[in-house]
Amino acid sequence: MDIDVHEIEDRIKGQFSLGHATLFWEDESGEYAETIASIDLDGGAILDATGAELACKRTILRERPAHNLVVYRSGAKPRFQDDFLYDIKLAATPFTCKMEGIWASECGVPMTLADALAEHGRFFNSKERRKALAASVLSKTDDRSLRLAMLAACVGSRAEIPRDAVRDVVKKLLAELGRGQDRTLRVIYECGLVTTLWSEIFEVVGYAAPTGEDPTLEDLALKMLKARCADLICDSVPLKADAARILADLAASSRTSDSYDSLAREYSDAVVSSVGTDKRSMESIGTNDALAVFDDWIITDMLGRALDGTLHAADAQNELNVRLHTHWFGDYVHQYEALAAAVTTLEGIEAYKTECTAATTEREIFDAYCANWHRIDEGYRSFVNAMRNTTAQFRRRANELVSRVDDAYGKFLVDLTDRWQLHLMDSGVYPPSTIPSQSGFFYEKVEKELPMAEKGKRLGVIVSDAMRYEVGADLSTRIAGGALSSGRVLVSASCEGMACMLPSYTQLGMAALLPEGTMEVDLATANVLKDGDATDGLANRQKVVEAAIPGAMLIQASKVLEEGLPNVEGAPLVMVYHNAIDKRGDSRDTEGEVFAACEDAITQVMKIAGELLRAGCGKVLVTADHGFLYQDGQVEEYNFAAADGLTDLVHASGHNLSHGRRYAMGLTLPKSDVLIEYSSAQLSLGGEGRFAFPRGITRLRLRGSGARYVHGGVSPQENVVPVVTINRVDARQTAECTGVQGFLCGRSAITGSTVTLDVYQTEPCSEKVNPLTVRVGLYDPDDASRLLCAEVQTLELASAAQGSEERKTRVTLHVTDDVDDCVAAVLRISARVGNTNQFDAEWEQRLSVNRAFGNDFDF
């Protein structure tokens, strides 16, 4: 054979450079016997001990010809009891020029195991695999640990613990299986490591093939999925908790979640067939998210209960919170939201029926609406929005529920509107002095603030067209919950109501929000004069406002959203006019999108408010010109008011008359039982006009106009508008998150396969107490990042229940065999820090580990 002397020299010198001063080269074939004389070691020496062991030993011990020394011996190895150099050999570093020896040296494998590498030649043909094996910190001191380290190198695992390495191997194989690939499995077979693969999987996961059959990845994946559903299926597979741990990691990683989804769908039917019908309820499934069908079962269960009246709003919201952080929630979020909103709306309407008779004045109705009844409108809006985003299949299944909600909401609107109209003129004039009025907004909320151009004393006002009270209240709640992004500025938010002018349409509402003055409606155009000044359009409003507050700036929201806020350095007051809701609602083609427009309005207004706060506004007010009525179902014929003579007057010459769906105005109006008529003076307006409104929630006929979204009339939904106040505050004034505490169920010792605790939300959520996201897990006390359970449970603590027992959530953690490496474990509840992705420990309990005792009795 051709022998490369220089390569041998380099390899020997490489060993010397690693601090190995004495090398023992056992050349059984003697193929290098004639080569050693030509090897130059630059100061090192080679002693040929072949046939002269005792002389060589004396030379080494007495004379040591060089610090770096190679002891070479050719021929068959003697028995150790006959070997005069055995002690020298034990003290020296083995050296060989066989490929197995080269591989062993390169990869940090003991030379005593070099011969075992021959059967894995394909593994060492890859430079990347050799490099990975060399870098591995896994033990390589015996055949089993060496082959496991090689197995880990095949998948690029950097694990430091054998169990973690096996998890990495299984995750890589399942990830490829989910994508229809088998590259890594083929490499493992080609490298002669398949026996090691399945034996290690048995040790860590507990999987073994049925008797007489070969193990397969497909069978492993199915049995692991069944094991993850062990609490639901009757023929569960007794795998270890590591099976669930591996699948949970696979599902949680953005790089492998698609593979998990594919496997879950592939084997779903095989798992589902083992789940009894009695286990297909939301209580039985709990937080289990192994399969997408589990969410479908929960939705079906909740829908059935909603229809038979046994699903309560608190239970529906709690279930939504329980499922919020589960794997498939994103595919079902709108169904959950729709069901929660439906029962919330229906319960709110039932509560209204018992409360409404106590409100016998316009002020009492106003206060009750602002305090509670507006939530029915919010629930209905949430329901319609969510239903729009659900699947066609779910919409067909929920058709009866939709009809119930639409019918109940329609009756609620009729009853509340009738009561509001009955008491509207109790004081003889509208708006009554007992209710905060839109006409006093500028003086009470703007001028009294004494806005100045200085930073922190500047005032921002956002007027959002048609933002009715419930939308403003929702906006306030979200801001108080931390949804507003304003850099380092901390804010608080609150919402109060005020009555808008009648008729409740844009031009009049916008004029009312300007500095005080007498308003008069142009009956032909519907434009409004204030103390004789025009108020339509931004330029006219700028003149009116600047006359009261010099330097004030009025801006269109579209410009702010597209280009950002302009320089407002010298402005004491910045008013931004926003139009998302009315713009979409007033068109027959897009009126069905009005609730989606409300969501857009909330998002956009928060963005504008953030800009104003960063620009030096110490306070930002959000209000509206009017509200609106909207019913998602088709408007029936009986919901149209037939006002005889109205159409004739509109077309007659000499009559300044105009009307919308919910109002009519002119110098002369037809007399009709379906209309309520007021004079200008009764509505706190100048001029001689007369104003009429359909009774109840009926509409006037108007060609080319939509009929589901309407405003201008007399109803709390149209007439009560929000004043949201957003203040800069210090940290002490911001809303706090609820707290969390844990209560261990059982002894403070781990003796079996599970640990159970109750997670307790210490305070109910409210406007002043925000929800809290927590994670529950079992950890190594010496390594806070080392998980000792199958998966971390993530919970959303958002209950508003007053009862403490209703704010408890039971969590069961499945313990992995990692816990057996520890004398103790830490049960920890961690809470999210603000709006970050960081979680800090909030509650901990140390548990002793004594599974040797417990497992004997863990049936």
Q: How would you characterize this protein structure?
A:
By secondary structure, the chain is an alpha/beta fold. The strands form 8 sheets. A 6-stranded mixed beta sheet has the order 6-19-12-5-11-10, sandwiched between helices. Strands 22, 25, 26, 27, 29 and 30 form a 6-stranded mixed beta sheet that branches. α6 (127-135) packs across α7 (143-154), α7 runs parallel beside α8 (162-178) and α19 packs across α23.
Count of helical segments? 31
For the termini, the CA-CA separation is 65 Å
Mean of all residue-level pLDDT scores: 91
Strand content: 15-25%
Secondary structure: number of strands:
30
What is this entry, summarized?
This protein is of the alpha/beta class and 859 residues long.
Outline the secondary-structure elements.
Elements: H1 5-17, E1 22-27, E2 45-48, H2 53-63, E3 69-74, H3 86-91, E4 93-95, H4 99-107, H5 121-124, H6 127-135, H7 143-154, H8 162-178, H9 183-190, H10 194-204, H11 217-228, H12 241-252, H13 257-266, H14 268-272, H15 282-285, H16 292-308, H17 313-323, H18 329-355, H19 362-389, H20 392-397, H21 399-423, H22 441-446, E5 458-464, H23 469-480, E6 491-499, H24 506-512, E7 519-521, E8 528-530, E9 533-534, H25 538-548, E10 553-556, H26 557-563, E11 573-578, H27 581-585, H28 594-614, E12 617-623, E13 629-630, H29 646-651, E14 657-659, E15 664-666, E16 675-679, E17 690-694, E18 709-710, H30 716-719, E19 720-728, E20 736-737, E21 740-744, E22 749-750, E23 754-761, E24 769-770, E25 772-780, E26 783-787, E27 793-797, E28 808-814, E29 824-832, E30 839-849, H31 851-854
Parallel strand pairs: 1-3, 1-4, 2-3, 5-11, 5-12, 10-11, 20-24, 22-30
Antiparallel strand pairs: 6-19, 7-8, 8-9, 12-19, 13-18, 14-15, 15-17, 16-17, 21-23, 23-28, 25-26, 25-27, 25-29, 29-30
Helix pairs in contact: 6-7, 7-8, 8-10, 8-12, 8-13, 11-12, 12-13, 16-18, 17-18, 18-19, 18-21, 19-21, 19-23
